Amino acid sequence: MSDNETTVGELKAVVNRFIDEREWWQYHTAKDFHGYLDRGCRGKEHFIYKSQEEADELFSGTKRVEIEDEVADVLWATLALASKHGIALSSALNENLAKTAKRYPIGARGSNKKYTEL
């Protein structure tokens, strides 16, 4: 599957089929998904106390596979949660970006200040 050729709906279907085949929906509550997302973000430990250069090197080193697995875990949980609870990810993303654009207008370009400081 290529990112340029695969839709969000297709990804949801892959995750749904995987869960259906194992009869796991009963074990995947909103609370559980929150835990999966939190654990999936464990990849942050690869980056703590690293310079930007060291962090960038992780993607060309042996840790890349671990980081890819963690990113896939977060995507898997996100797709399953959205599917189970009827969240249209494309719409949710666009709405979120619209809200964020109000807090961080184009005029904030190049700034790392929080929106309350702009």
Largest sheet: none
Order of helices and strands: HHHHH
Derived structural class: mainly alpha
- How many domain modules? 2
Structure characterization notes:
The protein has helices at residues 8-22, 30-40, 52-57, 64-84, 89-103. It is mainly α and 118 residues long. The chain has 2 domains: 1-87, Helix Hairpins, CATH 1.10.287; 88-118, no CATH class. The model has no long low-confidence stretch (mean pLDDT 86).
Task: For this entry, give a set of tags.
about 60% helix, about 0% strand, globular, about 120 residues, Helix Hairpins, 2 domains
Describe, in short, the structure shown.
By secondary structure, the protein is an all-alpha fold.
